[in-house]
Amino acid sequence: MESRAFANKHNLLPIKLGALFYGRGDHTAVLWPASRGRPAQTVTKFTLLCLLAAIPTFARAEAPPGLTLTVTGPRVTVFSHASDACDLWDIPDAPSRAIRTASGEVLLFATHFHNHLWRGPDLAHVRANCHEVFAGAEADDPSAFNDRGWLAAPFTRDGVNIIAIVHDEFQGHRRPALCPSGRYMDCWYNALTMAISHDSGQSFVASGLVAALPYRYDEVTGSHRGYFNPSNIVPFGQYQVMLVFATAARAQLPGNCLLRTDQPEDPRSWRGWDGTAFNVQFINPYQPPTTPGVHVCTPIGSGKLRWPVTSLVRQTTTGLFIATMLNAAQDGGVFYATSADLISWSDPVRLMPAEGEGAWHCSDASPVAYPSILDPASDDRSFATVGSTPWLFLTRYNAHSCALGPDRDLVRFPLVVTPNN
């Protein structure tokens, strides 16, 4: 069954149904097999989320954004895989984040699960560095919440002590006894953990569980399940907030969930939005049982935040929050939406045309992933704010013989942000 008719009927992203299967190592999954005139297509974890977790849209009043974002210049390469990679799988595999340390050095995070940071005197002059600052323990027990981890959302108060929310994947398909199908997607169990550095980002150690489904690994196998891809950590009043993406799992509805804390260094302090307030306390499902349904978050931005949010920043002159997303479909692009309160969002607006690797054809322009906005002039140590001339960062895939693999560059484009009167 071809997916486009199904997708158009239900307002979902187009996926060729019945052709999704896995088994191309730890980094990619086959979206559909080779056929006459078309090579096999593979995708990474990010595009799987974008393509498989699309949320239906419903009739709604138009809500224009309070800001207009415009790309104003050519692409600049920040990291070239061909010349800068430490090894084959040293790739920009997460949205770009940045930290300014106490010494003034800037650290750029766009990591793979063997986490390397780019370092430099400012955001314009960061360079690749092969020193590994963090890696998960690759524990075979899902209850350890310590398999493979990506440093995804860093935050610091003083530039010496840095916390990072970790996108933690338990990859059950690498443990045959725990994954009879052997397929990545069937046995992908995701949670958010925390790592902390006390040496200005030279090293990080695991420090606890932040958010997990209230269900154990063996209770939700059969698809990718859990909380994924935390956004930037952004101040809002006395709190720090972030968006995370949830997939459907029993009582947990799919969508972007809002979390906040007034003690970001304490992994147990984060609370999720329940539809009326931040009352959701996340639990360890391997601890004594409780009522699971009260420990799941309620997604925000229905019909507005239509894809996983990969970046959240606050614009300084208006106070508006900007959420960045990728519609990975062939006719998609990089989108943004704005909000004054993080609950009510504007309709998404396309910032630039683009597509993800799952929708890519050999004759198409290079696909992209992980759009993120950072401002080199931000006075926030965690680069959570932007002014009028920030940069858009993207991972750009380079094709070889009509196939996509680990050859991926980190690039940026200049933006202008204009308030809408």
Approximate helicity band: under 10%
Summarize model confidence as the mean pLDDT.
88
Terminal CA distance reads: 47 Å
Global geometry? globular
User: What Rg do the Cα atoms give?
Assistant: 20 Å
CATH topology: Tachylectin-2, Chain A
Kindly name the structural category. Answer: mainly beta
- Helical stretch tally: 3
> How many beta-strand segments?
27
Q: Briefly, what is this?
A:
Helix content is 5%, strand content 38%. It is mainly beta and 421 residues long.
Describe this entry's structure for a reader.
The chain has helices at 3-10, 45-52, 81-84, and strands at 29-32, 41-43, 67-71, 76-79, 97-100, 106-109, 114-116, 118-120, 132-135, 148-156, 162-171, 188-197, 205-211, 225-228, 234-236, 239-246, 255-261, 271-272, 280-281, 309-315, 321-327, 333-339, 349-353, 368-374, 385-386, 391-400, 403-419. By secondary structure, the protein is mainly beta. Helices cover 5% and strands 38% of the residues. The protein has three helices and 27 strands. The chain has one domain (3-419): 5 Propeller (Tachylectin-2, Chain A), CATH 2.115.10.20. Residues 1-42 and 53-59 have low confidence and may be disordered.
Secondary structure: elements and pairs:
Blueprint: H1 3-10, E1 29-32, E2 41-43, H2 45-52, E3 67-71, E4 76-79, H3 81-84, E5 97-100, E6 106-109, E7 114-116, E8 118-120, E9 132-135, E10 148-156, E11 162-171, E12 188-197, E13 205-211, E14 225-228, E15 234-236, E16 239-246, E17 255-261, E18 271-272, E19 280-281, E20 309-315, E21 321-327, E22 333-339, E23 349-353, E24 368-374, E25 385-386, E26 391-400, E27 403-419
Parallel strand pairs: 12-14, 20-25
Antiparallel strand pairs: 1-2, 3-27, 4-27, 5-6, 6-8, 7-9, 10-11, 11-12, 12-13, 14-16, 15-16, 16-17, 17-18, 18-19, 20-21, 21-22, 22-23, 24-26, 26-27
